[in-house]
From TrEMBL:
This is KIAA1045 RING finger domain-containing protein. Keywords: Metal-binding, Zinc, Zinc-finger. One of its GO terms (molecular function) is transcription corepressor activity. It comes from the Eukaryota. It comes from Xenopus laevis. Residues 215-246 are annotated as: Disordered. InterPro entries: EF-hand-dom_pair (IPR011992), KIAA1045_Zf_RING (IPR031946), Znf_FYVE_PHD (IPR011011), Znf_RING/FYVE/PHD (IPR013083).
Length: 277
């Protein structure tokens, strides 16, 4: 998979100083990004550090999950915000977030959140608040709601069409590394564990605020495929995993991971769609 040859912004070719997006094929000059206001001086270093690492850097198109919505979807999201009295551009506390999710649930299903769902909402909140500041930034909230909407409204095939060539290639490599006996099948628990693997991004310092190119820390040593850290969140080995015996093909693997791969696009260290278990 090759990157574009010319800077997306100025359309000039100067090989040495182009920074590639990890999601799409676009490349950029850091100077052009700064000129356009996509880069503030204090995170230039991070772009230059991140863009050529394995974690990579997402350009301002790919960083913004909101751009994946159609105009209609966008409109319905904004409708919901205004009905639920969500104040745009403001960070949300856990109470705000729970309140919003309660209202949305009541509108859609005419009932309050179950304890189980409330627990999930709380977990989702804390995975979007990696610095434990007690609040979720507006940009992360929008990204989360956008991905929820995609999950709810789009078909599996339409989600697959959103994946880029780079994302497919990474997913393919992950699948192949899990398929150790080369029979084109992996088991269900490996498939589920991979859903955590796309979010291997950690902030290395306090996230200041939601800028389009924000802080992404160094990738952990392990690739999503070989990582074992996801296991710590799994059940204890004593409990038998019903998914262990399920056989998963490449097509199914791609389908079951697509929404999480999309959710992992932003540079923000927040996890915008927490996989269950
Ligand atoms: Zn340029
Ligand atoms: Zn991009």
């Amino acid at each position: 998979i090759t990157n574009d040859e010319m800077c997306e912004i100025c359309e000039v070719w100067t090989a040495e100083s182009l920074y590639p997006c990890r999601i799409c094929s676009r490349v950029f000059h850091d100077g052009c990004l700064r000129r356009m206001g996509y880069l503030r001086n204090d995170n230039t270093l991070e772009l230059t550090e991140m863009a050529h690492t394995e974690t990579g850097w997402s350009c301002y198109y790919c960083d913004n999950l909101n751009l994946l919505l159609t105009q209609e979807e966008m409109y319905s999201l904004m409708e919901m915000f205004s009905q639920c009295k969500v104040i745009p551009e403001c960070p949300l506390t856990l109470d705000d977030f729970l309140h919003y999710k309660h209202l949305v649930n009541r509108q859609l299903q005419d009932k309050s959140l179950s304890d189980d769902l409330e627990e999930q909402v709380t977990l989702q909140f804390s995975s979007m608040d990696p610095e434990k500041k007690g609040q979720v930034e507006w940009g992360d909230f929008i990204s989360h709601e956008s991905i929820c909407l995609l999950q709810k409204l789009r078909t599996e095939n339409s989600l697959l069409r959103l994946l880029t060539a780079k994302e497919r290639e990474r997913t393919r490599a992950t699948f192949l590394s899990l398929d150790q006996d080369n029979n084109k099948l992996i088991n269900g628990s490996e498939c589920r564990r991979a859903q955590h693997g796309w979010f291997r991004k950690q902030s290395k310092e306090a996230v200041s605020c939601n800028v389009s190119i924000s802080h992404v820390g160094p990738m952990s040593e392990s690739s999503p495929a070989s990582s074992t850290s996801g296991k710590s969140q799994d059940k204890t080995p004593l409990t038998s995993d019903p998914d262990e015996g399920r056989q998963v093909s490449w097509d199914t693997f791609l389908k079951e991971n697509a929404i999480f791969i999309l959710a992992a696009r932003p540079n923000s260290s927040a996890i915008h769609l927490k996989p269950s278990v």
